[in-house]
Amino acid sequence: MKMVRCCSCGWIEPEDNFTPDCPVCHHPKAGVENLTYDSDFDDRDVEALWSWFANVPINDQDEIMEDFLGWNAGTDRFEIWHWFDAHYFGGVHALLEQD
Ligand SMILES: [Zn+2]
Q1: pLDDT at res. 29
Q2: Which of 38, 43, 44, 58 is 20 to 30 A (C-alpha) from 88?
Q3: How many domains would you assign to the chain?
Q4: Which residues fall inside 5 Å of ion ligand 1, going by CB?
Q5: Do 30 and 75 sit in the same domain of this protein?
Q6: Are residues 26 and 65 in the same domain?
Q7: 17 three-state secondary structure
């Protein structure tokens, strides 16, 4: 799942959902930023990414089964949890409580 952020309104969705425009502000597809875990995020962004991460399939060895935000398929999901933990105020526990 390739994640992008609308340069106009800041909305984050998988790139495939931006066809042809941002689903929120209808900014042209040319105005999106490709995102990886090295991009800059605020808490609202991390919340959006967390909800999309919930849609990434996980195998029975706790590895993600498709690429997500710069992590390759096969990455341990807990490595990604650590990233969320470090990038969200309140950490993963706060994210889990929102679900
Ligand atoms: Zn937008």
Answers
A1: 67
A2: 58
A3: 2
A4: 6, 8-9, 11, 22, 24-25, 27
A5: no
A6: no
A7: helix
